[in-house]
Design brief:
single chain; 2 domains; alpha/beta; two-stranded antiparallel ribbon; globular; Dehydroquinate synthase-like, alpha domain; binds glycine; 369 residues; Rossmann fold
Length: 369
């Protein structure tokens, strides 16, 4: 088992990564179990798979669960769900000094985290992520949000958890497609800042996706450690350091918007293809060796993730995709900063990107096979 500290003045916390640690939840989270009843907000599928383990762990410490189940899926990140959940937490008598446990993927973590950010002006919460994407990204770093009619994650708060328990055994029941989508975010840490980790993933990606215990634990631990370093440096994404975590997300967001944020393209799949596009666009600008862009493309294709824009059946052109980018929440006074690459492990924030040039590049990619 690994323990990765997220160092934030006055709000530091640990991320535990390991197989089977859900069974030790009561011991690991003992500082956050003030009362005999523990409020648990759980994704319905995650509860079906892991609820019994969590309940048994808490029962051993003489704690009972007060359970609130959230339907699986992005629709649960709504104003309505937030209202119902916060009302429920109030009826449970949750106080500022209490901790709410969130069991599930990014939807449950984001919704519960935001509810805890506003409940009585802020109570504690513990993240127990059960998807690869949530373990390596959304459960760490304190971004919480819901979706509104205007777009995804546009209403939220920075609210750090007090503890994250990432049990890699919970990934045993994760569908392969979601495993691959989460793996895109793992690859992201290598591509953006760690060439050695990228090379390790090139060699061991199959073992990670095959849920080899040691490979998976290493991949999750290295990813969380990378995120912890970045968040410690730039918690609120003001200096440009945390923005590096958006590698692949500007292109990816446009692709997700074009496919209606639906199962046609999962978030991680959009990020994977977005990273290929960011790498190829960097090469087109002469900033990244073409062979590095090919390495990025190859590892993404080998992971079973989409790597060619022409393969996802879009009925639009480059200008249509750029239109979606104009609604990106990273738009800043009329310009859109792009995460580009100078090398594998060397991402940087480019503020001089001409969106017409991006549209022309995307037109080229749309016909490439
Ligand atoms: N998922 C990007 C971030 O946490 O900043």
């Amino acid at each position: 088992m690994a323990v990765i500290p997220v160092e934030l003045a006055g709000r530091s916390y640990d991320v535990h990564v390991g197989r089977g640690l859900l069974s030790d939840a009561a011991t690991l989270a003992k500082d956050f179990l003030r009362k005999s009843i523990v409020p648990v907000v759980a994704d319905a599928n995650a509860w079906a798979d892991h609820g019994a383990t969590l309940m048994a762990a808490l029962a051993a410490a003489e704690r009972e669960v007060a359970l609130y189940q959230v339907p699986s899926g992005e629709d649960s990140k709504s104003w309505q769900s937030l209202q119902t959940l916060t009302d429920w937490l109030l009826t449970q008598g949750v106080e500022r000094g209490d901790h709410v446990f969130a069991l599930g993927g990014g939807v449950v973590g984001d919704l519960t985290g935001f509810a805890c950010a506003i409940l009585k002006r802020g109570c504690g919460f513990v993240q127990i992520p059960t998807t690869l994407l949530a373990q390596v990204d959304s459960s760490v770093g304190g971004k919480t949000a819901i979706n509104t009619a205007a777009g995804k994650n546009l209403v939220g708060a920075f609210h750090q958890p007090s503890l994250v328990l990432a049990d890699t055994a919970t990934l045993d029941t994760l569908p392969d497609r979601e495993m691959r989508a989460g793996f895109a975010e793992v690859l992201k840490y290598g591509i953006l800042g760690d060439a050695e980790f990228f090379a390790w993933l090139e060699a061991n990606g199959g073992a990670v996706l095959g849920r080899n215990e040691y490979a998976l634990e290493h991949a999750v631990t290295a990813s969380v450690a990378a995120k912890a370093r970045i968040v410690a440096e730039d918690e609120r994404e003001t200096s440009g350091v945390r923005a590096l975590l958006n590698l692949g997300h500007t292109f990816g967001h446009a692709l997700e918007a074009e496919t209606g944020f639906s199962d046609r393209l999962l978030h991680g799949e959009g990020v994977a293809l977005g990273m290929v596009l960011a790498a190829r666009y960097s090469a087109r600008r002469g900033e990244l060796p073409v062979e590095d862009a090919e390495r990025v493309t190859r590892v993404i294709a080998a992971s079973g993730l989409p790597s060619e824009l022409s393969s996802i059946g879009l009925k639009t052109d480059g200008a249509g995709l750029v239109q979606h980018m104009l609604h990106d929440k990273k738009m800043d006074a009329g310009t859109l900063p792009f995460l580009l690459l100078r090398g594998i492990g060397a991402a940087y924030l480019a503020k001089d990107v001409d969106l017409q040039d991006v549209a022309a590049f995307l037109d080229e990619q749309l016909v490439l096979h």
